Every structure is written in C-alpha cells, then in structure tokens.
Amino acid sequence: MISEDAVLLSLGLPLGAAVLISMLGRWPNFRETVTLLAAACLFVTVCTLVPAVMADGRPEVNLLDMFPGLPVGFKVEPLGMLFALVASGLWIVTSIYSIGYMREHHEQNQTRFFVCFAIAIAAVMGVAFSRNVLTLFIFYEALTFSTYPLVTHHSTDKAKRAGRIYLGVLLSTSVLFLLLATIWTWHLTEPHSLEFTKGGLLSNMGSDTIRQQPWVVGILLALFAFGTGKAALMPFHCWLPAAMVAPTPVSALLHAVAVVKVGVFTIMKVVIYVFGIDLLTDTGMSLWLMYVAGATIMIASLVALTKDNLKERLAYSTISQLAYIVLGVALANASGVIGGGMHILMHAFGKITLFFCAGAIMISAHKTRVSELNGLGRTMPFTMAAFAVGALSVIGLPPLGGSWSKWYLALGTAEAGQLPLLATLMVSSLLSIAYLMPISIRAFFLEPSASDVHGDNYHVHTGIREAPISCVVPPCITALGCVVLFFFAERAYQLLIPIVS
C-alpha cells in the first residue's frame, strides 16, 4: 500500500464504519461486526506506515487549501506515528469490551454509541497525522463534539450536567486560548505559516520579536497549554471527573484511547514542532509550565487519596499522570521529551486496564466504591489480577512498561537541574501506591464485610463470578501488554529518537 493512501485510509476507515454502523443499527450482530472489522483494519493500515517513518520517511497528503498557503493536510512523523498506533490498537480491545458491556447493561442508544465512538477515532487519527496547527485544531474540535453524546449517553440530569461542563470547559479554552494562539503564531512567523517544523517553526521562522522579547514565547506557550483543555492541567481539569458519569467504555476512551491523550499529544507536538526544544531552553520560558505540571501531579494525587468512588479515584489519577507528560516536554531536553512520549503509550495500557476492571466489577458485583471491594479477588481473580498489573504499571514498577517512561522523566528532571521536580516525581509515585494498591489489597487479602457474607450479596462472594468473557479478556490483554511493553520499550524509544535528534 502506498503510504499516502494509507494516511487517507486511516481517516476514511472509521468514518466509513460510522456510516455502516448507523445503517445496521437494527441488526446488532452486523453492527458490531463492522465495528470490530474496522478497528482491526485501521490498526493494520496504521502499521503499514511504520517502516516508512522508521526509515526517516514522512508520508504526507493535502486535502484542501482553506486559505492561500494554509492547507488542511496530514504528515506522519514519529510522535504522531506512536500515538496513532496506540489509539488504533486500543480501539480493537475497547470495541470488544464495549460490546459485552453495552449488551450486559442493556444500554439504550447502542447504535449512536458505536457511531460516535468511530467518529471520535477518526478525529484522533486526524490529530495524530496533522501537518499544521490548523488541521490539528479542526480535528481537536471534531473530537470534542463527537464525544459529547458519549458523555451524556445516559441522558440523566447528572449526565446532562456533566455534558455541559464538558463542552463548556473544552470549547471555552479552545476558542479563547488555543485559537488565539494559532492566529498569533501565524502572525509571528515570517513568512506566515502554521506548519509543524522540525526544530520548531518559531525557532526557524520566527521574527525578531521572538528573539528580542522572549516573554512573547512564555505568553504564547501559556495560551497553547491552557487552551488545550483536554490535557486537564489544573485549573482546567474539572470536566474530567464530571465525565465519569458516562458508561465505563467511554471512560476508557476518555482516559486512554482518545480525549486526554489528544490533549497532552497536542501540547507535545506544539512544543516540539512549533516552539522547538532549543528555543524554550534558550529563553527559559517553559519553567513556569514545569511547575504547573508538578503542582497538578501532586494535587491530583492527594485528591485521589480522598475518593472512595473507584472511577473518581482513577479520574484524578489520570489528571496526575497526564501532567507527567506535560512536565516531560516542558523540561525541553531529550530525556524529558522521550519520557513524555513513552508515557503516552505506557499510561494508555495501564489506565485502560484499570477502567476495564472497574466496569467489570460494576457488571458482576454491582460495586462502585473502593470500600466495598473486600474479598472480591476471590470471586473475580482474573479481573482483580489484571487490575493489580495495571496499577503497578501506572505506579512505575518493573517489570512493567510504566517504569521506563518514568525513568526517562526522572532523568529529564535531573538533566534540567530541577531537583524539586525530581522529588515531585518520587513522592507522586509513593502517593500512587497509596491510592491504587489498597484496592488490590482489599480484594485479595481482606475478608468480605459481614453484610456481604450474610446479606443479599452473599452470592457475589461465593465461587468464581467474573463478568462476561468479553469484559474479562480485554483487561487481561492490556495487562499483558503492560508486561510486554517493559521488554520491548526500545521499539518506542527508537521511534521517538528522531524528534529530539
């Protein structure tokens, strides 16, 4: 397959699937078959681009010119290649999980769910392969609108309120800050451009204003960072815990496959290809972003400790872990950037495992609170074992993938001479142990509560009582992926090296 065709097919496959799914809504088996086939075909298509990118090729294609010299187009570079592999690969297991979850719960509007899910994946592909800031902005907004029906899926008052917060925060930040940053970048470059450029667009083409007034870099970076509300940097994080009212497969989409990862990916791509690492190092204008990320890491970790609701605890864990990625790129050195890029991959596998398990617990045991999980590992051994593996990977312990990304992030802070931030990473890892490991300890080592043993929930704690197989196999697969990534992390490292060399 020609690489340019593969780029277009990567966007066309999920969009075509969305159309077919909507047409097959009255036949669930056919609808879900299309979902699975599209997910598998997308992953294969994305994989065909890897050899070209590893050989320093940059497949590109333009769709149209919206304005003179400002096309909507795509160009595959290493960071986008990694993100596309993560999103397309996890769409497969998320689809398997979603089918079992939605059927077991007898959810309404299942066709709309799968249609919006497919459109969201198409938007993710557009962001991953965007060749300029304009293209990224268009698909960033498309992702917001395509995921809104997923957040409000249950149509309850609580879901509608969460949807209003979701749209309110993400649209206000993108329109007020991100769009302004895009226009300002166009104005600052000579000749005018929004192209993602190796070494940094502003570093290579910036006017004398950039060099004479470095504070402009700091303000522009702030507009991009806070304009990317999907990255959930504090104080623009409240939409993420609110969105936990959505079905668990949507939570998995939000936290691992699409929305938040698009946020941190956007910040990484802008820093690397619009500002340039050298420009931020020379001006020192990313120092404030390092400490905002560090504060987000610590505050979110502390809040997670206070949450008894399992999905809310995982939501604040995600806010903390996303800030690791922002911190990595704000360090503006090779180790930090590579650590941030690898954390997109490692965190995706670890966190999607945790959310899969949370959904399986709710389906089988009808429990949503950490304090209710005593003894559950005896009746749901596969689910809770997968949870333990995912938790250890998020914590960053070997032999699990999360240990590598955190290693490079720690190296980045040391190379930047930021010992307070290095201490932040260490303390936050201890805090992640404190809010994640008690879940596994409760499940495997504590006795069920007296009300469970002698009450109506007695059957939940006798014999093996796992969720349906389609809700158990996916977390086991992603947990295994956490282990595999530890031993094959060099592949991700080699893919990311060109963006810092």
Put simply, the count of helices is 23
Residue stretches low in confidence (pLDDT < 50, at least 5 long) are none
How many individual β-strands? 2
The SSE string, one letter per element, is HHHEEHHHHHHHHHHHHHHHHHHHH
Approximate strand percentage: under 5%
Helix content: over 70%
- What Rg is obtained from the alpha carbons, in whole angstroms? 22 Å
Overall mean confidence score, pLDDT: 90
Amino-to-carboxy terminus distance: 29 Å
Label the structural class: mainly alpha
Largest sheet: 2 strands, antiparallel
Q: Give the strand line-up of the largest sheet.
A: 1-2
What can you see in these coordinates?
The structure is a single chain. With 501 residues, this protein is mainly α. The protein contains 23 helices and two strands. α6 (133-151) packs antiparallel against α7 (157-188), α17 packs antiparallel against α19 and α18 packs parallel to α22 (469-487). The longest helix is centred in the middle third of the chain and has 32 residues, at 157-188.
What is the strand and helix layout of this fold?
Layout: H1 3-23, H2 28-47, H3 50-54, E1 60-67, E2 70-75, H4 78-104, H5 110-128, H6 133-151, H7 157-188, H8 201-205, H9 208-212, H10 215-227, H11 239-242, H12 248-257, H13 259-275, H14 277-283, H15 287-306, H16 310-330, H17 334-365, H18 381-395, H19 402-415, H20 419-445, H21 450-454, H22 469-487, H23 489-496
Antiparallel strand pairs: 1-2
Using brief descriptors, characterize the structure shown:
501 residues; two-stranded antiparallel ribbon; mainly alpha; single chain; 73% helix
